[in-house]
Known about the structure:
Blueprint: H1 2-27, H2 32-35, H3 37-40, E1 42-43, E2 46-47, H4 48-84, H5 99-168, H6 178-202, H7 212-224, E3 230-237, H8 242-263, E4 267-275, E5 278-285, H9 299-311, E6 315-321, E7 325-333, E8 341-342, E9 351-352, E10 355-356, H10 362-375
Parallel strand pairs: 3-4
Antiparallel strand pairs: 1-2, 3-8, 4-5, 5-7, 6-7, 9-10
Amino acid sequence: MISFLFRMITLFFLFSSTTFGFLYIFFGSPTDEDWGFLFDIEFDELPVIAIILISLAFLSLMISIWMSAVARSRETSATRYVKQLVEPDFSLKKKNLSFSLKKALIQANDLIETQRKSLQRMTNEKAEANDKLIQERIIAERQRLARELHDSVSQQLFAASMLLSAVTEQEDELAASKPTLQQVEKIVQQAQLEMRALLLHLRPIALRNNTLAQGLTDLIQELQQKVYFNIDYRIEEIELSKAEEDHLFRIAQEALSNTLRHAKASEVELLLITRDNIGILRIQDNGEGFNIEQDKSTSYGLRNIAERAVEIGCSYKIVSVPGEGTIVEVKVPLGNKVVEVPKSDSPVDLEKNGEIAESTSIGEMEQSLDLKKRSD
């Protein structure tokens, strides 16, 4: 409002000065003889000088209103564009802006976009650093727990198992209690398997820049020293991406862990081979099996296997028949990146006439499962 009044007064004095300048040019010095008509002539009882001054005041008012409206319009437009600067899809659609304003808005938008990308990058880096720190702390804590369990509970279970084995071998004075002792021995052995599966989860073997074949071989060789059942395996070198190798390795760990904890198997077979430009990872046991739709004890591990297979675009199949065993199979499309180098680390022969020969195939287990469902 103050600026409006100041503008109006300034215009009034400017127009008044201009008007009296013209009067001076045409009528000379302001004397009664030359300028007297301005006061003597009246219209509606108003002298000419009053009419001139009122007209100049009205003209100043109209021009001030127009200038204020134009200024307000420009301010509103500039405010709208300034507010739009923070939008990612900012663009100057109107052409009635001055070149300097357009240039300033574009420069400001470029600066904001640069700052936005910088903040996003810093936020992402901070989140990744926090996640990495959390993961490192989790891994350290899991390794500490695994070390303590291995040094205490696992060793005690092993000692108890050895003592029970020695006691059950004595046939004097223990004939009546021998079945009970054998049952206790089985319970302790199962507890050992549970503990080893838990240690496998708490302190999993990492690939550590090894190939999937090397990692699986190391994993099986370590397990063979700690479990009571036999593990047969055939492993071939396959060229895979880092993500595929890591996920397949974790799938194998999860499947073997489930076998340790639930299967009560006497034999386990592991395959990592290529057929028809497809990589195949298969873990099969002859354990108790389970009903996939009803048994919830293994649902978490199976869900992890399924999620990891889907994440790398693989197809998977899990088949289990109560009393016959379980098969976990994951197939990886290889495209044109297959490099087969068969490894002869295991004496088992799982190949016959160029095809995979299994003790129990997935198709046979599925047929057995269908027959059991029909009989039920």
